[in-house]
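Ticket #4471: complex job returned nothing on first submit. Input attached below:
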Amino acid sequence: MILSALWGVVMMFTGLATPSARMHGRLAILGMTLLTGAAWLDFIGFSLLSDSTAGGMLLFGTYESLFILLMSGCALLYLLLSVEPMSEGGSPISDPLALHFFVMTGICIVAGYRSLLMLFLGVEILSIPLYILSASDKKNLRSNEASLKYFLMGAFSTGLMLMGIALIYGTRGSFHLDALNIGLEALSPLMTAGIVLLMVSMAFKVSAAPFHFWTPDVYDGTPTVYTSFMATIVKGAAFFAFFRLFQDGLGRLHEHWRLLMAFLTAATLIIGNGTAVFQQSVKRMLAYSSIAQAGFMMLALFAMNQTARTGIVFYAVAYSLSTIGVFAVLARMKDHSFEAFNGLAGQKPLLALLITVFLLSLAGIPLTGGFFAKYQMIAATFLEGKMIWMAVLALLCAVLGVYYYFRIIQAMYFRSGSSMPPAISADLQAVLVVTALLVVALGIHPDWLLGMLSY
Amino acid sequence: MLTAFDNFPALLIWLPLLGALLAFFLRREGVAGRWALLSSLITFGVTVASLFFQGAQHYALTQVSYVWLPDIGSSFTLSLDGISWILCLLNAVSFPLILAFSLGSPRDRPHVFYGLMLLAQTGLNGVFLCIDALGFYFFWELALIPVYFLASLWGGERRVQAAFKFFLYTFAGSVLMLAGILWIQMRTADQSFSLASFYRANLDPAEQAWLFWAFFLAFAIKMPIFPFHTWQPDAYEQSDSPVTMVLSGVMVKMGVFALMRWLLPLFPDAFKRFDEWVILLCIVGMVYASCIAMVQDDLKRMVAYSSIAHIGLMAAAVFTVQAEAWHGVLVQMFNHGINIIGLWMVVARIEAQLGVRKISALGGLAQKAPSLAILLTVIALANIALPLTNAFVGEFLMFNGLYRHNPWYAGAAGLSIILSAVYMLNMIRNVFLGGTNTMTENFADISLRHRILLSLIVLTILFCGVHPEPMLSLVEQTSDLILKRVLTR
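Support reply: We reran it on our side without changes. The output follows.
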């Protein structure tokens, strides 16, 4: 965490020191590698700092360290795939790269928080760089609009979160998660209001319906490389924080907020999947599909048990890998409509195959990571034993998902077109192959990750 | 310790898979197709050999099991018993025939085509062999995806839509099955996906009811049973002939097989509540499909609807839970697969030469192509289930069971057999007999390759029709074992 913050500062200054974009890119990849290495050391129990608990406000067990490790691993893959398109815009990339590292700091904080104060700090450190990133295409009106929209809505939800935290602090007299974990007898109206406000603000951050309206416009307006980051790693971290809050903080009240959560989940699933079907642009389709995927992850929050706990991280990883892969290709394309993919299989068979793997994973077809991700969510819902229809609804939504993901596959394989194939360099393709192999490995042998996550 | 014959189920998966992966890399002209044929012949050899090695004990579950996902409770368990053997045999016989047939007509990207074909064979064998529910679901999808690509890449003009409709229908069915599988797994004592644990799972009647329908829907769409059949005529019509043969010859049997292996033994209580409804559905579907087949002017669509009628009879016979009917279904699954592949071959040859499938536009082919006409007539008679043809054995046993269950049902189902004679003989009259017209004047007889293939099919038809005992004795023990489980719980 500290490393990522420091590296962010370093990145910022290198922007002054050297104007070479390639240098910045390499430096960023080096930094992310170091970060991943540090997370790995942390995970195997070799702590770099003797005390990283910040007076009990942060706690990093194996589960949390593993999450950071996975997310920084995904971020490393993301950077490897994205530095090249980033530097094409002409504007210096040291600043955006620095912002990525600040976001990673936020992710580390929200992964290990034990106190609402830290949650607030983490979410803010996570969000503010994103507001800037979404506006990084300064000359594009849509990018500016996206940023403003994101900022206004984000600020609003932050206000709600702060209000919720204040109300809870007012009743309990502490920010600590343990202090929150009370039974029904201690529940006061103020506390209830606080919980609902927290839920709403977190639902906003993970773009769960009905608080999702910002998502399509922001994802669409933001330069594609950054959309990839926002839609995957950041969203995974937000879900992790959301889950932690309701498991450790409010777990004993599960029965009471479950119905509300079920409503949010069902609405997210239906709206996300239902709207994605009608999109004409692949980028917007992916924005709605990210809402749809959020709906699946919400099932973990609804179920709130051991399977959900391992499943939500598994889902975040499988979903992030696949989405990063698709976005990496999309970032290299000028035209974001479905027609742009026409006939890709004829021109670039390997690339088409890779995209197919990512899309099959997003659709949840067996032998890909996405299948076991969805599997875990459904199993968690069944284990909960209440409201089985939620699982059936989710599965029917998965069928809708097949419909819109397969539109791209159909365009690539079954339609002929003279589309401009995206210019993907050999290096980039190699990273994509690694990503796809990881997706398939998660689908054939999910045990290694599930096993690590379950303690 | 794995002994020699324990390895057979595993071989039946790995051999075609290996063949498929290799075929994708054989880009040189004509190599992939020959390799695929060789690979399918090896698979055929192994399938036949597996019977001899197992000797008299083929009813016993010979199993091979790999540890796969211990945390989730799934292990990769394959078993070869009577009912899976007969379907693997169908698979093993069909693919060499289909591949040899498709070698006769060149196509673009042959390495992809043959790779996907063998991948489909892998998936199908997996469905028949796997007795772990999660593995079963995996193979169920694995069989679907190559066929989806095959049907979309080669075929008629509307193939993309037709294949996608087929894919969405079956996928929707199978996710419901997945939900059911997960639910049962949680109700098993040891949180396992194995078939044995599933059989022992404690499910109360209300649970069984919804699980029954979830599974039934998946299988009914696959078979397909009326009213879930609407994907089928489109898919059959639009796909390339070899793909249609895989679909109708082997793939639809997945549904019937799954009824016997999974649905009935898992939910005996629910089955007793709903069996009349399902049989009624099947019989309505049979008569309905036969009526539509009668008025079809397109050869492919006619065969497609006749297939719905035949599958409907099999499904109805499964639900009568009569021992003879089950033997009949198992034998008929094999025989129907062979017959319909023969029919498709004839249709494909006519279409390849004349470019039309309209019955009304054809006529007098028998004068021009005597050998095609003779071979077709035998296959058509087998499709009507005349005595001494293979289908007679199966259909007789199924009718017997249906009659014991309820004579009225047997009567209604018999109507569809009469109708099938009407449309098959009509087809022969309009297409093969009568005078030639300007288009059919230059029709040439079929080549040696197709003569051999069709003769092989005809020989199988006659052999199985005259001497059905070996096949019956093969399936009897397993079938009775499963039936006992259905009836005594």
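The longest strand of chain B covers residues 62-69. Closing as resolved unless it happens again.
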